[in-house]
Design brief:
Helix content is 31%, strand content 12%. It is an alpha+beta fold and 439 residues long. A 7-stranded mixed beta sheet has the order 1-5-6-4-3-2-9, sandwiched between helices. Helix 6 runs antiparallel to helix 8. The two termini are 42 Å apart. The structure holds adenosine-5'-triphosphate and magnesium ion. Adenosine-5'-triphosphate binds next to strand 2, strand 3 and strand 4. The site of adenosine-5'-triphosphate has 24 residues, from strand 2, strand 3 and strand 4.
Length: 439
Amino acid sequence: MGDAMSKNDRETLIAEQQRFKDLTQETHTPVQVVTKADPRANRSRKNLIAATLGIAKRPTWCQEDCAPGEEAPAGEAPSGAEDAAEEEEAEDAAEEEEEPEAPAKEKPPLSDFTVKKVLGKGAFATVYKVTQNSTSETYAMKVMDIRDLKTKGALARVIDREKPVLEQVDHPFIVGLMGGYVSKNRVYLVMEYCPGGDLKSVLNLFRLGSFPEAQARFYTAELILALECLHQRGIIYRDLKPENVLLDVEGHIRLTDFGLVKKGVENPDFGAESFLGTPLYLSPEMVAKAGHGQATDWWGLGIMLFEMLTGDAPFQGQDGTIEGLFTDIQEGDIPLHRGIHPNAMACIRGLLQKDPAKRFNSSHLRDHIWFASNTPPLAISEDWDKLLGKDKIFQPPYVPTIKSDEEPAEGEETRETEGSTETTTKKEVKEKGGPCGIM
Ligand SMILES: Nc1ncnc2c1ncn2[C@@H]1O[C@H](COP(=O)(O)OP(=O)(O)OP(=O)(O)O)[C@@H](O)[C@H]1O
Ligand SMILES: [Mg+2]
């Protein structure tokens, strides 16, 4: 791609900017979200941004008919929001003494944001790179059209899952939520912008579409800590795939897209019943609709690790049908791949155990020899906590090249993921990779 933006890209950008401008004309209400202490030094910026956006500690999910900043009246909160609010109230009370209340600042109007680029389009959402005009800060804004979410369950995806979980969790490897807006037709989540893009796009930049072993190990280690953090809070993620793992400016991962999470799941193999996820990454117990628990996420990590090392998911079915794919997931052997080191392969085998009760979890992984292998200057296994630390002992193996706003990176395309259905073929599954079966 040359210096100038192509005509098509420019026209697309102008159309999106106009679309966004039209959206901001709707009546909308800023919603407050909770932010917590920042465990890594380079994220203290997040607290500053939170103050700028006027984020307070109490979560308030306002509906359109509230005045800006006003809490939704009791009994009128969207389904599930009250429960979430109660849980959070208890947590907030516990934290009240440790953290000083962030000063309440006026929330910027939605019209204070300008679209710079479309970062991704999925089944329910469009994610924009936006700049806040008054501060020149850059964010990612996820806009979900709730008119199209026909069922209550689908609406719950936004109201009950994505927003409350992002509020509840503050972890260096999980994307930060900065604020939000809601209108009758749309929900807007303002998140920290991860300029490295998602791991699927990064994989495509590498020769052979796969990562060197040390790089795959580094991302796997950071993902283990992110999943551990969710599981410790009884949250299962259920949509682990490279498209949902972003890279920050330094090359650390940030897990995003919490639309399929389930709260209150403490066990490895039960606690959740729904059938959802992205076909290539579904665990055998999910495919069997036999109930699932935390182990379903460790399966997803196994698939992702195989994909990071080889460029392809291990189970794809023989005949291009979704039934063939599901049979392969339940019965197929992990394909032999000469390029994978035996220690890495042992890790994959542990993660891709068909029986969730026998599958590796984070304690197996923390002690696994693969993480004791050379990762200069220190093997990860010697001190996992240093991965989270400020001392930066573990430098990311790859630092993203950041291009200017108006110039899409070489070969870069707006990611489009569509919701797949049970009749999706393997080809479609591979091309679209979108979530299926919203409960
Ligand atoms: N904070 C961010 N910074 C940079 N890029 C992002 C960010 N959030 C999302 N993206 C890009 O947008 C894509 C889609 O985002 P996300 O996964 O949140 O939405 P989705 O898959 O459309 O959501 P849903 O599954 O809820 O419909 C990601 O794969 C990534 O490429
Ligand atoms: Mg996604």
